[in-house]
Amino acid sequence: MPELPEVETTRRGIEPFLQGQRVSRVIVRERRLRWPIPDDLDVRLSGQRIECVERRAKYLLIKAEVGTLISHLGMSGSLRLVPADAPVGKHEHVDIVLESGLALRYTDPRRFGALLWSDDPLNHPLLRKLGPEPLTDLFAGERLYQLSRGKSMAVKPFIMDNAVVVGVGNIYASESLFAAGIDPRREAGTLSRARYIKLADEIKRILAHAIERGGTTLRDFVGGDGQPGYFQQELFVYGRSGEFCKVCGSTLREIKLGQRASVYCPKCQR
Known about the structure:
The protein is of the alpha+beta class. The chain is 24% helix and 21% strand. It has 6 helices and 10 strands; from the N terminus they run αβαβββββββααααββ. It has helices at 4-18, 41-45, 141-148, 155-159, 170-180, 193-212, and strands at residues 23-28, 50-56, 59-64, 68-72, 78-83, 92-98, 102-107, 114-118, 253-257, 260-264. The strands form 3 sheets. A 4-stranded antiparallel β-sheet has the order 1-6-7-5. It has a 4-stranded antiparallel β-sheet with strand order 2-3-4-8, with helices on one face. It has a two-stranded antiparallel ribbon with strand order 9-10. Helix 1 packs parallel to helix 6 (193-212).
């Protein structure tokens, strides 16, 4: 699943080709995504100039002169620029055709993503209750410490809660907990302020580094400019169950937390 760095990589990849461009038409081949694509999307967006592409959590906000297209990549979605007359492959559900001769093509084999329209995107039901962005000053260890008091849930699902902080998915939660030396099974309410400060710092560092490196290439993800990300080779625990820890040499273990696989080092993480 594309996580925050992958979505930010996509935003940076597509925005230079969209900003200031006028949409000539929208071709929808398959409306049945996680939520149906609006029937009138072509009418609403065609003829408008795209002002910018922003990101909120894992949602991309393609802002037009009037209204905003909200995009979510779901489990396997991607947005990339192609020539407007490029042959259409399987699972390529939507083309936003630009006057430049390029098209922004939405591909989604599992059809679990979304393309929705809103006149007030930040107050859309999907966005309005989201927590702070992790790479801003609104997110800090003190917030994690205060929100965790009295919580018996494991720390990993706690930091993956979008109401606590957005964009910390399975990959980067696993990697951040490893970097901070915290066992993902630990009860959230038992961790000290100092350990949460360390954890927040690692979340910021790892997400920023992953964005710099172009996200994590996992199965279906391709960056918005068609280039794969390059962070995967630097993963310490995610997807490495049964392998040796790169730090201490212990065998990494896998457990289930909140119905998700979690890999950790029993020696480095306490």
